[in-house]
């Protein structure tokens, strides 16, 4: 369920993948490129987000485990698995809508 009162944000997503496999994320977990995780600059670790590719309508639910992106103009970095789920691996970036999900 999307959290009431939290506006959706729209921006450019990128992804990071196999080159980071096994490295520690900012929350201390080991990065799994096939996992459904993301890096966000400020949201608390563990926050679940629904990320929707605005070009094709595909969406995925990810969990924030890392900090980033550090490239200007980007709002979120997705794991390779999440990028595959929303269909952005071939393009490298995509315009996405991000909605914070209510904890269950």
Question: How would you sum up this structure, described in words?
Answer:
The protein is mainly beta. Helix content is 7%, strand content 38%. A hairpin with a 5-residue loop joins strand 3 and strand 4. It has a single domain, classed as RlpA-like domain (Barwin-like endoglucanases, Beta Barrel), CATH 2.40.40. The N terminus is likely disordered. The chain starts with 8 loop residues before the first strand and ends with a strand. The longest helix is centred in the C-terminal third of the chain and has 7 residues. It comes from Labrys miyagiensis. Lytic transglycosylase with a strong preference for naked glycan strands that lack stem peptides. It holds the Pfam family DPBB_1. Its EC number is 4.2.2.-.
Second-tier CATH architecture: Beta Barrel
Q: Can you tell me the CATH topology?
A: Barwin-like endoglucanases
Q: Proportion of β residues?
A: 35-45%
Query: Topology as H/E string?
Result: EEEEEHE
Global mean pLDDT: 90
Gyration radius from CA atoms, angstroms? 12 Å
Q: Which class best fits the helix and strand makeup?
A: mainly beta
Q: Between the first and last Cα atoms, what is the distance in angstroms?
A: 9 Å
- Fraction of residues in helix: under 10%
Into how many domains do the coordinates divide? 1
How would you describe the oligomerization state of the chains in this entry?
single chain
CATH class membership:
Mainly Beta
**How many extended strands?**
6
Enumerate how many helices there are, as a single number: 1
**CATH homologous superfamily - what is it?**
RlpA-like domain
Quick one: overall form?
globular
Unreliable spans are 1-6
Main sheet properties: 6 strands, mixed, barrel
Strand order of the largest sheet: 1-5-2-4-3-6
């Amino acid at each position: 369920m999307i959290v009431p009162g939290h506006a959706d944000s729209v921006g450019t997503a990128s992804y990071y993948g196999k080159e980071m496999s096994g490295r520690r994320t900012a929350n201390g977990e080991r990065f799994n490129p096939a996992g459904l995780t993301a890096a966000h600059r400020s949201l608390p670790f563990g926050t679940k987000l629904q990320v929707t590719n605005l070009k094709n309508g595909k969406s995925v639910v990810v969990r924030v485990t890392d900090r980033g992106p550090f490239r200007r103009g980007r709002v979120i970095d997705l794991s390779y698995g999440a990028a595959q789920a929303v269909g952005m691996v071939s393009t490298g970036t995509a315009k996405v809508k991000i909605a914070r999900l209510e904890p269950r």
